[in-house]
Structures
1.
Amino acid sequence: MNFFTIFYVLGSLLIFTGSMMIFPAIVSLIYNQGDIAAFLISMVISISAGFPLWWFFRRHSTLNIKDSFFIASIGWILVSAASALPFVIHGTIPSFTDSFFEMMSGYTTTGSTILSDIESMPHGLLFWRSFTHLLGGMGFIMLIIIVLPFVSMEGMYLYRAEASPGQVLTREKFNPQVKGTAIRLWIIYLGLNFLNTMLLWMGGMPLFDSMCHAFGTLSTSGYSTKNASFGHYNSAYFDWITIIFMFLGGVTFLLHYQILKRQWGLVKINTEFRWYIGITLFFCAIVSWDLWDQHMYEGPMESIRYGTFQVVSILTTTGFTTTDYELWPQAAQMFLFVVMFVGASAGSTTSGIKIIHYAVIFKHLNATIKKLLRPLEVYPIQINGNNIDSQLVDIAVSYFVINILWVLGGGGLMVLLDDMDYFSAMNSVIATLMNIGPGFGEVGPSHNFSGISDSGKWFLSLSMLTGRLEMFSVVVLFFPSFWKE
């Protein structure tokens, strides 16, 4: 492994993280709530730790794929640790374990929290908490590709280490230059964030809250500035605006680019997008119908509003809530639980298993059954109009299996670590591994993760990172063969 290059990149990440604290520091100055010193001290610590690594190892050699996997995992850990400092120094979250959990949850766009009274926090820290969503939504490594002077191949290795394996299945190609790709993705991403902020602000939400909620919407993250999340506002306008942008966050950003370029033919043949629309409409309809049938809300429109919001929020792994869905009928809760295992599109800001994997597995099962009936026939599996080979099918199946094994094994581990009931333990793993935020049971929408032990929080932080980096980039580090030359 090229440790000089690794140290150079990690040092750059620390410098960049410290530099980004200037934005919450400005917010701290505006509101003057006593948290400015925490950011200034944290900036000095982060930049001071990163500068020697950047300076002494700046004459770096090239990266290989192993280096990129290592950087993707360790880089997110370092960034989360540095970002936790303002909370520890200010005393809002005095425990480093809790602060690290909160920041890992922010950067991985999970939205799980240990905080019980969010509204009591200073505005600077609230902004920093939500700002991590903006930075982590498109991937921190994707952002650093823009900043560092990498050649295209090195940038491609880093991009592959952080990208979804589902993007391999869709064979997405965006731009021959990785840095150009990253810049265009970020322009689209920031443009949608700005539009979301303006629509919320024009609807009557304070500008500060509008920005923070927009950061958590397009990034499909879920941190709110209010204890009751979007339920605080009780506004149909805010709910529907957020539904639209959560849905857009769940669309692969390649598709956003194709729409801007009016490449309607490519949009039309996109397999995952068609499945995404169909799955979303199905679960929204069935949950909304159950809420209306059980008279949970006044009239069908209210049922559709609340049902659609929660389905889209969980499907896109956002985690915003408008109500305590654990008070809903059992059927509605069951469908929400199923949705937790879906996730949206590869190449979007969402996490989870992703729809493309289900599409490939379903097409593979369909072809296998047909093959049993007609052994001599050939049934190709097509994604976006292209045939895919058996190796890509293996990727989809393996990815699905390893996620389920992590949920089952992790649930058992949480029972041992925290003596939780198995349903709550499994939900704590699902909520973090799929980067959803709230789950069911002891980690449901009316609870948080504060009651979990430190060891449990460290494991769930690992689950967040593993889910955000799409499993393989983290799991590969635990294989002895990875460390062999």
2.
Amino acid sequence: MNFLSGEFPEFLRFGVGVYVDRFVNWLLRDFSHVFDALVEGGLAFLLTVESFLRWLPWWMICLLVFLAAWKARNWLSGLLYAFFLFLLGIFGLWDMMIQTLSIVLTSVVICFILGIPVGIFMAYNEKANNVIRPILDAMQTIPSFVYLIPAVMLFGMGKIPAVFATTVYAVAPVIRLTDLGIRRVSREMVEAAHSFGSSTWQTLTKVQLPQALPTIMTGVNQTTMMALAMVVISSMIGAEGLGMEVLIANQRLDIAKGFEAGISIVFLAIIIDRISQGAVNRYRFPEN
């Protein structure tokens, strides 16, 4: 045993991978019915969103984007973003866009349902905050490719593991900013609500959440952008859409297809980001 050598000592090595493997096998063996139910419920919701988007005429979706951008920003932005969406149809990627948008919207809804309550719990419980905050730090530090491993192990290949991986990757901002928004509500407003006889629930719903709404909306915006950033990575586990087109183009060195699919993701990201940011600014700086 030579401690002066450059190699790490063999007797100090310890592998944890085998225990993680046993844990996952235990989950699959004893809780397979839970994961089956999650797959069925998630797939039903995802297909509902996708079916609704396919039911809408293409011009209706462009019109809705125009109206949303006009409301959030101005009519010129509305025309520009509607034109971006129109270009996706010209590129022949409209169906791919619908599939990508369905996965993103489903993931964002799940992040919203899970993230808001967790953020509120962190704001009200300092011990929980101290425990959850390092977990969120780890979630935002771990490379996004790592999330594909448990997603495939627990849910197999396809859209549902893509939604799972996207949700885990993107949920942290909405949790953090919900916690931050509630904490930044002035103590005087909270004390005034209590002095007028408001319960904790009434204070939360009628004082703290309305005041924290701009910050929470910023978290939703960041979560949406992170979910969209996962579309290419999720294609590696069978998620169809624009990400799959980029992946296929890379494998075939198809520059034309890669450019069209890549710029389409950029257009979609610009549309979602600008409209949601415009909505945040409306909440933060309401018109007189």
